Amino acid sequence: MEEKIKFEIEFPIQASPQLLYQYISTPSGLSEWFSDNVNSRGELFTFIWDGSEEQAKLLSKKSEERVKFRWINDEGTNCFFEIRIQVDEITKDVSLMITDFAEEDEVDESKMLWENQISDLKQVLGSA
């Protein structure tokens, strides 16, 4: 299997960390912007897009800070995706830091996908 490449992207976002955390850590919050619908049973989250389903395991979360998932089909790899809320100590500016993995020829496509998703999130938050 081809080795996936880790990438990070930063999105400045105008919202409080408390509010953002609800949108990145709960099934109802994630279904507002990340996928059409999200169900969870314990650590297992099912993301639904246009009738297709992908399952991810919640690896870790820290209140008002980050969530980290691994797609079930990436089991046995070091691949994951993490959504982290970063607050600048001085300016108090809030950013979402995305860490994800993609195959070498799909990195740009994956970044564009995240840009679209975060754009949807900003619209939901009213900070577009």
UniProtKB/TrEMBL annotation:
Residues 1-126 form the START-like domain. It holds the Pfam family START_2. SUPFAM superfamilies: Bet v1-like. This is START-like domain-containing protein. It comes from Pseudalgibacter alginicilyticus.
